[in-house]
Amino acid sequence: MSATTARSWFSSAAGPNEPSGRRVGRDAPQKWGSPFTYFVALLFIGVCIAPVIYIVIGGFRTNSQITTSPAGLPHPWITANYVNVLKSSRFWGEFANSVLVALASTVGIVVLGLMVSFVIARYDFKLKGAMYSLFAAGLMFPMVIAITPLYIVVKDLGLVDNLLGVIVPQIAFGLPTTVIILVPFLRAIPNEIEEAAAIDGTSRLGFFVRMVIPLSLPGVVTVGILAFIGSWNNYVLPLYILNSQANFTLPLGVQAFSSQYSTDTAKVLAFTSLAMLPALIFFSIFEKRIVGGLTGAVKG
């Protein structure tokens, strides 16, 4: 049995039994909400977007323009700040470190989280509930709280000033969110599909690879996106672990760059906007994937 067949079987089993009234109600045009709701939503959107726009536009200005008119538009528009940052090997070195750390952390979080979630969702064993509760409790302890003992552990492992010293803790602290999101997805897979796969001679590992991963792909994509963005924006852990500038990630690079060029505000704004641009683009492209994955997790 292929994943496509299982997916079509699952949808056909749920579709015809759906009440016609519900389908009609779903196709009916939705009513607009109150104007106050939209006003509050636009207000929050403006509060979130305004600083980003200011930073991006500020990179096209000169220091004199920022001093004379802090809230004004560039006149004329200057691209030298962005060009100088893009020509510097410092920026691209920190960019490569951020990409390496984010990709490695994302792969580790998704692979390990998917395997752990599969065991919790599909197997019955002692202390199963305690294990799930342990991952749920992990959501209540952010990395900042454990940063001092975490630094001691990383130091004992000899990973200080090493990108692995950032990757491994990020994987560990990313697993609770991954497990909480993926377990409902895996529980929602009908047992009949697993039984049919077993009759066809598919092993448990084959069922995991050929059925579980494709059917839980929305959740996998969601946790992957969240892990990548969280790793890209992480500042506290690299601040404690990384010492040499050659190993800096972009968040640390922004801080070091702003300290070195504190009098060149326009150049600092250009560096900052380029540092946050990849995460913004990544999030904008996969925004619907995140919402769809979280919705599926809640339904499961």
Automatic annotation (TrEMBL):
<feature type="transmembrane region" description="Helical">
    <location>
        <begin position="36"/>
        <end position="57"/>
    </location>
</feature>
<feature type="transmembrane region" description="Helical">
    <location>
        <begin position="268"/>
        <end position="286"/>
    </location>
</feature>
<feature type="transmembrane region" description="Helical">
    <location>
        <begin position="132"/>
        <end position="154"/>
    </location>
</feature>
<comment type="similarity">
    <text>Belongs to the binding-protein-dependent transport system permease family.</text>
</comment>
<dbReference type="GO" id="GO:0005886">
    <property type="term" value="C:plasma membrane"/>
</dbReference>
<dbReference type="InterPro" id="IPR000515">
    <property type="entry name" value="MetI-like"/>
</dbReference>
<feature type="transmembrane region" description="Helical">
    <location>
        <begin position="95"/>
        <end position="120"/>
    </location>
</feature>
<keyword id="KW-1003">Cell membrane</keyword>
<dbReference type="GO" id="GO:0055085">
    <property type="term" value="P:transmembrane transport"/>
</dbReference>
<keyword id="KW-1133">Transmembrane helix</keyword>
<keyword id="KW-0472">Membrane</keyword>
<feature type="compositionally biased region" description="Polar residues">
    <location>
        <begin position="1"/>
        <end position="11"/>
    </location>
</feature>
<feature type="region of interest" description="Disordered">
    <location>
        <begin position="1"/>
        <end position="26"/>
    </location>
</feature>
<feature type="domain" description="ABC transmembrane type-1">
    <location>
        <begin position="95"/>
        <end position="286"/>
    </location>
</feature>
<protein>
    <submittedName>
        <fullName>Carbohydrate ABC transporter membrane protein 2, CUT1 family</fullName>
    </submittedName>
</protein>
<keyword id="KW-0813">Transport</keyword>
<feature type="transmembrane region" description="Helical">
    <location>
        <begin position="207"/>
        <end position="229"/>
    </location>
</feature>
<dbReference type="Pfam" id="PF00528">
    <property type="entry name" value="BPD_transp_1"/>
</dbReference>
<keyword id="KW-0812">Transmembrane</keyword>
<feature type="transmembrane region" description="Helical">
    <location>
        <begin position="166"/>
        <end position="186"/>
    </location>
</feature>
<dbReference type="InterPro" id="IPR035906">
    <property type="entry name" value="MetI-like_sf"/>
</dbReference>
